[in-house]
Amino acid sequence: MKRARAAELEIFKNLFHSTAEEMGAALRRSAFSPNIKERRDYSCAVFDGKGRAVAMGDHMPVHLGSMPMSVAAALKALELGPGDIAMLNDPYAGGTHLPDITLVMPVWALDTPKKSRPTFYVANRAHHADIGGAQPASMGLSEEIYQEGLRIPPVALARGGKIQRDVLAILLANVRTPREREGDLMAQVAACRLGERRLQELLQRYGASEIEFYLGELQSYSARLMREALAIIPSGTYMAEDFLDDDGHSDEPVRLRVAIKIGGGKASIDFEGTSPQRPGCVNAVFAITYSAVFYVFRCLLGENVPACAGLMHSIEVRAPEGSVLNAKPPAAVAAGNVETSQRIVDVLLRALAQALPQRIPAASSGTMNNLSFGGIDPRTGEPFAYYETIAGGMGARPSADGLSGVHTHMTNSLNTPVEALETAYPVRVRQYSLRRGSGGAGKYRGGEGIIREIEFLSEVRGCILADRRLFGPYGLAGGRPGHSGLNQLTVQGLVRKLRGKAAFHAPCGSVLKIETPGGGGWGKGKQAADGRP
């Protein structure tokens, strides 16, 4: 019986990972929108012939952990041949929210194109800055998914290497910025085809049998590493709860509750007691909940552990159907992907801190501070739609302060640079700075949030989907919570405070100011710069 050699296992792990990374680099370089080109709101991954994740780029955790369910949905719905590419964004088919479009492509060895099952699949997911719907940029205060944009079940975008123009036409007819959408989508297609070429080169060099052997070994290896990590955690049941401020529809907080049972090298994650799905758009589909669990437990391992499906073999995830963490259609889900995913991480880490107090950090900002707006660009007379997330403070760690002004946990994107934002859109950035004193005090301080102030040089309709405006990021081990966030809009000299989740209309010359939360502090100790204990 053949046995895997450690050196070769490491080589193949890095070969597959480098393929996903190169796909991401190609997608970023060839994309049209600042959201993908500058903010890097995309993810790429490699899957084996059974549709199991075998390598993930160092991209967006909320995309990567949920992407396997989109791949499974595509393979169930479509028969994919050489050169075919599936497209979907349906949150109820393994997606996250409608702006995230996923492409899936099979990969065969060059000499066996008619093999019954491909050796690999490659997939990528990118956030498109508009997918139609009621609000520019498709991130509004929706109450059902039909308001959020064009919902795409698994369909064939390409057959035999040729783009299906009728399918593409349906998509482009339903968005505000069709040229940008087509450019970003073709960048995704190019990334898939690059991944196909690189994997075919590996198959030609090593042979299908050798490749498939190590694909299986990587799954077993990752599963073993996770079992060993779980065995170190003291056995027991660890419970925690946390809240979203509201759902954007009412003032009622949204409860997230978890019980983590550890024992025998296994973990059971149960979200019983979480709030039922809500009328607002904070509902998360199960793929997002699963993705957050995948992220948190992957963080317990070393950086060099392969990001394979095997990591979840010893972890069971349960969320009540019809809850805010396992929503049923037609629930609105735009903020579930970006806001609720962050709170899932917070509640999981709060529970694990009871078992691993010297390893778990305090809460980070806990929100992606989503800003979207659109209108008619006076420079061109054409519609525009813009979307970004704004960073905040990282929670303090048991051995160090939190970092300031960074995206944390389920997002791994960047802020749009001032120069790119002002060049592409009719806006002026008035302020972009750290929010001094917003991090929680403690032996180790939470990182600082950000102040982002934008003047609109045309009339716009916009929306903010943010959280931690009421419940600040918690501290741990006696550390103080971080400051909650703040939104305000100034129109003709009148300043109006905006809710955490708010739609707005801004005439030309209006100024929007967003102050993001700081991270929580860890341990008793230093006072805050403003004198807070």
Euclidean distance between termini CA atoms = 64 Å
Name the structural class. alpha+beta
Q: Unreliable runs, pLDDT <50, ≥5 residues?
A: 528-533
Radius of gyration: 23 Å
| Order of helix and strand elements from N to C terminus | HHEEHHEEEEEHHHEEEHEHEEHEEEEEEE
In one word, what is the shape? globular
Largest sheet report: 7 strands, antiparallel
List keywords for this structure.
533 residues; alpha+beta; 2 domains; 7-stranded antiparallel sheet; 5-stranded antiparallel sheet; 20 strands; disordered C terminus
Summarize the structure.
With 533 residues, the chain is of the alpha+beta class.
Characterize the structure shown.
By secondary structure, the chain is of the alpha+beta class. The chain folds into two domains: 6-222, no CATH class; 361-533, no CATH class. The protein is 27% helix and 23% strand. It has helices at residues 6-30, 34-37, 61-64, 67-77, 165-172, 178-206, 208-232, 286-298, 336-355, 418-424, and strands spanning 42-48, 53-56, 85-88, 100-107, 120-127, 155-159, 162-163, 236-244, 254-263, 266-270, 315-318, 370-376, 383-388, 427-435, 449-456, 460-465, 486-491, 494-498, 501-506, 511-515. It has a seven-stranded antiparallel sheet, sandwiched between helices. Strand 1 and strand 2 (53-56) form a beta hairpin. The chain is globular, with a radius of gyration of 23 Å. The model is unreliable at 528-533 (pLDDT under 50).
